[in-house]
Every structure is written in structure tokens, then in C-alpha cells.
Amino acid sequence: MLIREAVSEDWRSIWPFFHAIVAAGDTFAYPTDLTEGQGRELWMLSAPKHTAVAVDESGEILGTANMYANRPGNGAHIASASYMVDPRRSGRGVGRALVEYSLEWTRAAGFRAIQFNAVVETNVHAVRLYESLGFKIVGTVPEAFNHPTEGYVALHIMHRSL
Amino acid sequence: MLIREAVSEDWRSIWPFFHAIVAAGDTFAYPTDLTEGQGRELWMLSAPKHTAVAVDESGEILGTANMYANRPGNGAHIASASYMVDPRRSGRGVGRALVEYSLEWTRAAGFRAIQFNAVVETNVHAVRLYESLGFKIVGTVPEAFNHPTEGYVALHIMHRSL
Question: Distance (Å) from the C-alpha of residue A43 to the closest C-alpha of chain B?
């Protein structure tokens, strides 16, 4: 597996699983009816923001991540990041590799920490992955996410110094 | 004191204290070098978002608030809000009146709670005001705000059900 900066042509391969994940509506607080154009604008970021893809030996895209300053101004030293793994490619450590990449990239870019603003509490796999990589839950907003099958569930704020 | 929806012409009166507050850089994680046009775009919101002003008997603007969905999609039932009081008009309960107005407005708009994402811990006056109106600190992100005189200080996430 290789992780590299995303290029514009990658979107064609990202969109199918991006769309499936967003439409499922159980992990991201994105509009569940995002069009392809809106999705591209949201996900495919330009410098100083950054979008990356994980690819296998044949160049096929397994997952993607993006990262950026969480706030402007006097909050701009904290990064945030998002990750999506093609569900057909899960279980290979793609998510872990993407988080590790984002830790390296944001550290190199001079950020002092990464903060996740909205980790759905029922997304236990993600919470455990982040915790295993040193993130801590620093806050929990009750009933902040309307899960399609679980109803109102909490969103965690997670944080890790770099 | 009256609180009413802001109109475009109000910006002329808001900008001087808005600019002073943002340039001071000790309470908002906004770019401290915001231009007037950027400030207007950031603050003067259109439906379904909402911007309000507090005015005195002579119609002079004492402070302003805005409010909006904190997230899209399955997070859109939680509002967020921001408040600015003209420092020359402080001590008259303007901030409290603006927060109370935002509680009423967001409740009427169908939101289930209000969440503040970034309350600077050294902004003790605001933290106390919010707590006195039923908000609770549900999370604290360490060193997330680079205060111009205090250095790296925490940002609180605060929350109140409606």
C-alpha cells in the first residue's frame, strides 16, 4: 500500500465509495444527498489543505483522507482530518495507514495537534482506531447526530498532540 | 433594548466594534486581519441562517448575534451561535439578552440544542454568562487557541438543550 497526494483524476475512483458512505448517513455529518460536484468540492482540497489517497500495488484506490487547519486565525495551529475507506477494501489496515499518514503530514506542516470535531459514538471501529493511535476523547456532545437506525447519538471530539 | 433581525444597513454600525473585537484576537478564532468585506460575509447571514442586532431606544446598535445549523446532514438539528457586544456598551446586559434571544429563535426554528464550538477559556465573562443560562461545558480542547497575551489556552465546547 502506498499513500500519495490525490490528483484530480482520482475523484472518479473515490466518488463511488465516498457516495455510498455519505448516503448511508451513519458516520459523517455531511448532507446525505450530496451531488458528485458538491462531494468533489468538499473532499478534493488544494494547498494549504491536503487530500491523499491510499493505493494498492496495481494503483487502485483503497481509501482517502483530507486534512486542513481546524480553525482560522488564532486557532490555526490545530489541524483536523477526515478519512474514508472503500468498504470493499476494509480490514487491510487502510484506515490506520491513512491516520498515520495524516499525523506525519500535519506534523510536517507545522500543526501542533489534530482535532476531530464529530466522531459518531456508534462508529466504534473509528473511535477504537483513533484511540489506539493516541487520540483521546476530550468532549462528547449528547444527541448531536441523528443516526439513521440508532436515532440521536453523541458526537465525540477527539484530540492528539503532534 | 430591542432585539430585531439585522438588515444590510446595520453592518456600517457593526463593523467598527466587530473589527475591534476580531483584531484584538482574544475571543474569536477568526482571521485577525479580516477585511470589512470578509467580515460582512462572515457575520451578515441570510435565511435559513439568522443575524440579529440589539438596539437601544434611539436605534443605536449595542451588539449583534448570529445563529445557524452547526453541521449539515444528520447533525443539522443542533444550532450554533456567536455574539458580539460593542465594548462601549458592555455592562448593560446586552450579551445576556442576545443569548436569550438566540435560545428563543433557535427553539422556534426547530433546533434541539445549541452548541458553541470554541469558547476561549480565558473569556471568563462569556463562560459564566453561558453557564448562568444553562449551558454546560461538554468538552475542552487543550491549547487550541493562541491567545495574544496568555499564549496557548483551551477552547471549551459548550452545549444546552432547547
Answer: 15
